[in-house]
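WARN retry 2 of 3 for item q-0093 after timeout on previous attempt; input resubmitted unchanged.
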Amino acid sequence: MVQRHLQDYAYIDEGTGPVLLLLHGLFGTLSNWQGVVEAFATDHRVIIPLLPVYEMPLAQAGVPGLVAYVEGFVAAVGLPPTFAVLGNSLGGHIALVYALANPARVSQLVLTGSSGLFEDGMGGSFPKRGNYEYVRERVGYTFYDPATATKELIDEVFEVTNSNFKCLRIISIARSAQRHNLSKELPRLNIPTLLVWGLNDTITPPPVAHEFARLLPQATLRFLDHCGHAPMMERPEAFNRYLRAFLEPVPAPAVS
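OK item q-0093 returned
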């Protein structure tokens, strides 16, 4: 994946066809969606903005500020009138708020391990600084198989936790997400929505997925076993099968 730059935005833009806008989580990176890009850039235009979770002004470091950033990105890149939006963890939360504010633009929603109702994450308090083992355990906690957490990913999170500048923004965004409960707003989001959840997700556990399915009028819920908080990373082939079936439903037989 080649990172592009436009104005104040860094992003991935691969393939041609219907647009898939992918939003990563709080400690996420563009590479979290590698499996989706590889599977769908053959017949879709897959776009992933690098959300400025570590660099944005502290006063704007929250869900509303990140939604405004996505709105600016969509305008700057010149996306078509409608497109599908996918979000993992905090990215799912941002996708939901974006769709609530711009319902005519979002053709389909895909949420996986989304915040917005409940999450038990690392944010909300100052992470332990200088403790690599603690960070390794917490990053591993994201996955059913802790080995999914590569040394590169652990090193990146460790670097973040040792920067006052970045940590303050992470805490501000995490607290904003916890305050920004969407339970009362979700029933008016009448958009086809796919929920793909890990049965072993300990950050947004399966009951959270069931609650999303209950509140969203057009929700389809799919679970993946032996899978934690990031199904598109831990079970990419199964995740992509569910995604493909959702994006390209089998047409109804013609009525003679």
